[in-house]
């Protein structure tokens, strides 16, 4: 069948919309009519060659839509179901079998390098040149997406489906880093460095977790004000004030937890300096490959501080995404405050607005 997709033909090129053929679902796959897709910084990093893929390629990894067809072995999904699409995992390696699917040994192949999990066939057909897909096992910058049953999450029909796509990556990454990885005790302190969609989601999660001191650090004053609205107790513009000094003034001994969501070396190292003894820094922001962060080894040894990397908020998607939706329905996780909607055909404008900081989380509507 035909689908309209946004293609990146070469590194750093704009998206081009084109009609192509998409394959039928294999035994464990699901064909989804896409309603809307979030635009994530990961899409932009891949488009610009900072993160790997094969060109030409159809990106998109925060899809939300309605099941059109299911493969013969799919039992828990059916035509008409509302679904959110998330990251791919193999299900067979040791991390997957132990419940740590975000650290699947095939993570890069299945999410970035266009390996279709259910088949060696290309998901897009009828093109003069091979068009790569299976990005995050979905390539949801299109009117239809072919996903695997493992990364297709059935969701309630009581919430507007076009809002839900960003739960598949950016929103769950920020929220999960706090709720799943750090799991802070009520009354503790946390600092969030970088308040884009990931950082703001972490702030909402910290509020739900009962953190007593929630500190937002960024250089964008408007986003800091939104952070305060969403749960930050203190906001620090690090261009105007020294963040470590301010955090020491607020907490005396430093924070129990910190989340680094910028991917900037200097910010990550600054975040580490704000930790109290036995504090934990969660590194979420993805810098360019080869970036090295410097922490004094003796400081780690003598203070009990910890540094952990986090992928996708350590989320088991079929459990965590419905939980976030429930919190949203209860008014406790208002991630709709982060989004702005664009027509699919305006994808390049959405990219520009996101890069210019005019919008936090663009969502592309397919119709």
Automatic annotation (TrEMBL):
Keywords tagged on the record: Metal-binding, NAD, Oxidoreductase, Zinc
Organism expressing this protein natively: Sungkyunkwania multivorans
PANTHER family assigned to the protein according to its UniProt record, in alphabetical order: ALCOHOL DEHYDROGENASE (PTHR43880), ALCOHOL DEHYDROGENASE CLASS-3 (PTHR43880:SF12)
Matches recorded under Gene3D superfamilies: Medium-chain alcohol dehydrogenases, catalytic domain, NAD(P)-binding Rossmann-like Domain
UniProt entry tagged with the keyword Metal-binding: yes
Cofactor: Zn(2+)
Keyword Secreted attributed: no
Cited InterPro entries: ADH-like_C, ADH-like_N, ADH_Zn_CS, ER, GroES-like_sf, NAD(P)-bd_dom_sf
SMART domains named in the record: PKS_ER
Domain Enoyl reductase (ER) intervals: 11-364
Pfam families the record matches: ADH_N, ADH_zinc_N
Record protein name field: NAD(P)-dependent alcohol dehydrogenase
Similarity comment: Belongs to the zinc-containing alcohol dehydrogenase family.
């Amino acid at each position: 069948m035909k689908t309209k997709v946004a293609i990146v033909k070469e590194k750093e090129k704009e998206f081009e919309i084109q009609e192509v053929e998409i394959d039928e679902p294999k035994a464990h796959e699901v064909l989804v009519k896409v309603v809307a897709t979030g635009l994530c910084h990961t899409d932009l990093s891949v488009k610009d060659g900072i993160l790997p893929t094969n060109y030409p390629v159809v990106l998109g990894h925060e899809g939300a839509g309605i099941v059109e067809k299911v493969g013969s072995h799919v039992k828990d999904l059916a035509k008409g179901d509302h679904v959110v699409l998330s990251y791919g995992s193999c299900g067979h390696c040791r991390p997957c079998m132990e419940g740590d699917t975000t650290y699947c040994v095939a993570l890069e192949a299945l999410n970035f390098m266009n390996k279709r999990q259910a088949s060696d066939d290309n998901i897009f057909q009828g093109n003069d040149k091979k068009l790569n897909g299976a990005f995050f096992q979905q390539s949801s910058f299109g009117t239809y997406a072919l996903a695997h049953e493992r990364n297709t999450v059935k969701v309630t029909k009581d919430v507007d489906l076009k809002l839900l796509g960003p739960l598949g990556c950016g929103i769950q990454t920020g929220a999960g880093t706090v709720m799943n990885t750090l799991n802070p005790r009520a009354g503790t302190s946390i600092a969030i460095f970088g308040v884009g969609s990931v950082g703001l989601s972490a702030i909402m999660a910290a509020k739900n977790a009962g953190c007593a001191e929630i500190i937002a650090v960024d250089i964008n004053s408007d986003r800091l004000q939104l952070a305060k609205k969403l749960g930050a107790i203190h906001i620090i513009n690090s261009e105007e004030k020294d963040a470590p000094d301010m955090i020491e003034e607020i907490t005396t001994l430093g924070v129990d937890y910190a989340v680094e969501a910028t991917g900037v070396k200097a910010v990550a190292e600054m975040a580490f300096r704000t930790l109290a003894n036995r504090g934990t820094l969660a590194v979420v922001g993805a810098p360019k490959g080869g970036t090295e962060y410097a922490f004094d080894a003796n400081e780690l040894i003598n203070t009990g501080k910890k540094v952990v990397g986090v992928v996708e908020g350590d989320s088991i998607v079929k459990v965590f995404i419905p939980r976030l939706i429930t919190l949203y329905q209860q008014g406790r996780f208002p991630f709709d405050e982060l989004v702005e909607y664009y027509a699919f055909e305006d994808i390049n404008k959405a990219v520009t607005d996101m890069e210019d900081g005019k919008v936090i989380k663009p969502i592309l509507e397919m119709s």
